[in-house]
Known about the structure:
Layout: H1 3-23, H2 31-36, H3 41-76, H4 88-101, H5 106-128, H6 133-157, H7 160-170, H8 181-194, H9 198-204, H10 208-213, H11 218-240, H12 246-258, H13 262-286, H14 295-313
Helix pairs in contact: 1-13, 3-8, 3-11, 3-12, 3-13, 4-5, 4-6, 4-11, 5-6, 5-11, 8-11, 12-13, 12-14, 13-14
Amino acid sequence: MSRAGWLALLAAVALVCMLLSLSAGSIRLDWMEIFSGNASRLDYQILFDLRLPRVIDAFTTGALLAVSGALMQVLLRNPLADPYVLGLSGGASVMALLAMLAGAGSFGMTGGAFCGAMISMLLVFGLAGFGRPARLVLTGVALAAGWGALVTLLLSISPERDLRGMIFWLAGNLDHSSSPYPGIAGLVAALIFALPVSRDLNLLSRGEETAASLGVEVMKLRVRIYFLCALLTSIAVMTAGSIGFVGLIVPHALRLLAGSDHRLVIPGSMLAGGILLVSADTLARTVIAPQQLPAGVVMALLGVPMFLYLVSKKP
């Protein structure tokens, strides 16, 4: 199938998944009445104030995490690389929790998450160096463990009234979705800064020396993409907390099914990552309705068997 064919198929599946997610819930919506303008005020409130922002946030969060994973895997030449491996999400989570404890609003949490991701990235690069992928991964794993310990410390000293909300947020929770604009802005940034270098990423996947001999500024490309990954991860963490496996599974599946051309992998990861997280969040809202599960828990339960299956199929 051609690149345009794959993207058209993923876009169609994404649209269907989002419509199904908008329809899912304890209250059934009559789409004929909604489109005709004859639905009740309650139906419009449920659709536009509750479900639509949540579906958009689920899609953009999954898209951001999938693109970050795809970029990191080619830059580090490691199939296990994703935002969590380098500790970016851990740093973002710690600083977002600190902002939450300080009573900061969503803007403060966004800024805190971005600062945490940047701090984590600078620590990893300062300790391992920009041009050593193996050391970067090992340093990131160690730093992620340290951030995890700090998260546990913050939870242990947090006031009782804040503890349940913090735990649900860390587990990956889209229940408090409000503004879709940060996620949409992150997707626009990913398209603007990642798509133009897709050819360079294709060359880099063949090796640094090959890419450099063909005119790719390898160090400049690494710095640019790492900063972009820090931004995308911080927006995803601020929106939905810590959700794993999206950045790990989606690029693997796309490369296995459609090849490694990043002109397809980058936009395809956006669509497929959004599809995956929207589906997980829909299950989280409906499987034991009216009670809701954290989307991150459902994503982990889906992600483990999916990843093991992909690994078993990869030659």
